[in-house]
Design a protein that fits this description.
binds zinc ion; globular; RibonucZ/Hydroxyglut_hydro; 23% strand; six-stranded mixed beta sheet; seven-stranded mixed beta sheet; Metallo-beta-lactamase, Chain A; HAGH_C; 15 strands
């Protein structure tokens, strides 16, 4: 479990060294004028601005502090993106699209009408205004930040996640509708084998400190399901309590970290005997399939 200071003070970004985290946080917040505490996560050279959209979607503006160049993940509401650009005084260079569903890619065309020269990245021809089709392992530069594309088909057949790192910051991963806090996306165009590969062979190989920014605010319901599967998981219990408290105050539960997900996300714990017993399977692909099936029909009490 991550240290308790993160649980009780979640605005502070998760860094491996709590003292460095606090110093960076203080520098980030007090070094600037108009900061919204709960929507801006700082590290030394990357700033991530959370932009809530539609009913429960998140768009993310990734700002390279050195050059003031930025990328936007899934800009479904272009007006909000334009306003955030003005607030932050940045130049938007890239759109990183996770997948073609309208609540993620539906704003691409309008945004491109308003801003010319945008590089619109994605892994699926069905994505509006796509002009840079990317594949697994492709690298993109946003200012001085390095973005690695990770192909994670299953929710859709062209789903991409984006891993972003700078010189000295904690890395971040943008997981769209593949990995959620405490859960994963539905298997609309893929198989349990593919979701297993995405979560447990690809994403899980990145450092545990990596911050996870997902496409929807589904955390409370996901953790309730996690506890239906694993009732005695203390990490899931604590995270649910924390997440409910955040949502009661209308605050986001994003980001988590990959290390945390391994502690409470049942779809990243398919090797755990208690989960295998719950779904009456021991083959990890069968466990993944059975868990998703269970979740598809499960309703919180
Ligand atoms: Zn989707």
């Amino acid at each position: 479990m991550p240290p308790m200071w993160r649980q009780s003070c979640p605005q502070i970004p998760s860094l491996p060294n709590p003292r460095a985290a606090i110093l960076n946080f203080v520098k980030g917040v007090w070094g600037r004028g108009n900061v919204t505490l709960n929507t801006a996560i700082y590290s030394s050279d990357m700033k991530i601005k959370l932009l809530p959209a539609l009913q429960d979607n998140y768009m993310y503006m990734i700002i390279d502090e050195k050059t003031k160049h930025a990328a936007i993940v899934d800009p479904v509401e272009p007006e909000k993106v334009i306003n955030a650009m003005k607030e932050e005084n940045i130049k938007l260079t890239h759109v990183l699209t996770t997948h073609h569903h309208w609540d993620h890619a539906g704003g691409n065309e309008e945004l491109c009408k308003q801003l010319t020269d945008l590089v619109v990245c994605g892994g699926d021809e069905r994505i509006g205004a796509l002009n840079k089709k990317v594949k697994d392992g492709d690298k993109i530069k946003v200012g001085s930040l390095n973005v690695t594309c990770i192909f994670t088909p299953c929710h859709t057949s062209g789903h991409m996640c984006y891993y972003v790192e700078g010189d000295s910051n904690v890395p971040a991963i943008f997981t769209g509708d593949c990995l959620f806090v405490g859960g994963c996306g539905r298997f609309f165009e893929g198989t349990a084998q593919q979701m297993h590969e995405a979560l447990n062979e690809k994403l899980s190989k990145f450092p545990d400190v990596t911050n996870v920014y997902c496409g929807h605010e589904y955390t409370v319901k996901n953790l309730m399901f996690a506890l239906h599967v694993e009732p005695n998981n203390r990490d899931a219990q604590q995270k649910l309590e924390w997440a409910k408290n955040r949502r009661d105050r209308n605050l986001p539960t994003i980001p988590s970290t990959l290390g945390e997900e391994k502690l409470f996300n049942p779809f990243m714990r398919t090797n755990q005997p208690v989960i295998q017993q719950h779904v009456h399977a021991s083959n990890i692909i069968e466990v993944m399939a059975a868990l998703r099936k269970d979740k598809d029909s499960w309703k919180p009490k």
